[in-house]
Amino acid sequence: MDEKTKLTVDVVSDVACPWCFIGMKRLERAVAMTPGIEVAVRWRPYQLDPTIPPGGLPRKAYMLRKFGSEERLREIHDRIVPLGEAEGIRFNFDGMEVSANTLDAHRLIRWAASEKAPAGAQGQVVRRLFEINFEEAGDVGDRAVLTEVAGEAGMDVGLIDALLVSNADVEAVQSEIETAARMGIRGVPCFLLEGKYAVMGAQETDTLADALRQVAGAKARGELDRDE
Q1: Mean residue pLDDT across the chain
Q2: Which of 12, 13, 132, 192 is the S-S candidate for 44 at Cβ 3.0 to 4.6 Å?
Q3: Degrees to nearest 5, angle at CA 39 with 37 and 43
Q4: CA–CA separation, 191 vs 23, rounded Å?
Q5: Cβ atoms within 10 Å, residue 154
Q6: DSSP string, the chain
Q7: How far apart are CA 116 and CA 122, in angstroms?
Q8: Is the dihedral of CA 180, 110, 103, 146 positive or negative?
Q9: CA distances from 124 to 28, 108, 138, 160, 176 (A)
Q10: Cβ contacts of residue 200 below 8 Å, gap of 6+?
């Protein structure tokens, strides 16, 4: 049997972004469609609105200020909901009460990729944060919620509790977000394949699968090395 080509996909994402939730689902299906490729997914931070205070804001008022009218907001939701349903997502926009500041969520996602965390914890944490925010109408800025998610992923709850009340990795997360901006990333999700090729937006599953195949093929032929 041929050896699988290994690819790294860095997903620049915010758990406050419904398109990123859709993008996660589509990437999972794209990976399943390319069994000859071994894909390692790493989640990178982005904040749609870093100015939201730590305690969050009432969502309805915040979204109305952002989009201007209930009609416009309803149009946006009506567009996203069926796309989510096609991916098995039950968006509950009407139930959402808080627009959270996601900085602490990104810190948890970062720690979930550390050597101290169980294998696969990062992906599990990201999935649960999306589910809590968009399906369960929970507050992903609430540190108690984040600690619970960490526990579900098998992480050290006591350690996470202590880290969250500190400033640990705040600068590191903010620096990653600034790096994404310098790279020209102005919207999410953004899929970075092998750190060289970017696929912007929640592209269709077939598009993501094609990108995986093309980059894997180029890597297998040694073409990525020649680009160095």
Answers
A1: 96
A2: 12
A3: 160
A4: 9
A5: 14
A6: -PPPEEEEEEEEE-TT-HHHHHHHHHHHHHHHT-TTEEEEEEEEE--S-TTS-TT-EEHHHHHHHHHSSHHHHHHHHHHHHHHHHHTT----GGG--EE---HHHHHHHHHTTSTTSPTTHHHHHHHHHHIIIIIS---TT-HHHHHHHHHHTT--HHHHHHHHTTTTTHHHHHHHHHHHHHTT--SS-EEEETTTEEEESS--HHHHHHHHHHHHHHHHTTHHHHT-
A7: 12
A8: positive
A9: 12, 11, 17, 16, 21
A10: 185, 187, 190, 191
Has residue 1 got a pLDDT over 50? no
Which residue's entry shows tokens 């297998």? 220
For residue 96, what pLDDT is reported? 98
Q: List b or e across 47-61, with b for residues whose CB sees 16 or more CB atoms inside 10 angstroms.
A: beeeebeeebbebee
- What residues have CB less than 8 Å from 74, skipping those under 6 apart? none
Q: What is the pLDDT of residues 195-220, one digit of tens each?
A: 999 999 999 999 999 999 999 999 99
Task: Identify residue 94 by its one-letter amino acid code.
Answer: D
The residue with tokens 């900085």 is 103
Q: How far apart are CA 117 and CA 124, in angstroms?
A: 11
- Reported as a single tens digit per residue, the pLDDT across 139-170 is 999 999 999 999 999 999 999 999 999 999 99
Q: Tokens 């680009």 belong to which residue?
A: 227
10, pLDDT greater than 50: yes
CB 189 within 8 A of CB 20: yes
The residue-averaged pLDDT of 105-125 equals 97
Give the pair of three-digit tokens for residue 122.
Answer: 């990062």
Q: Which amino acid is at 167?
A: N
Distance in angstroms (rounded) separating the CA atoms of residues 115 and 112? 8
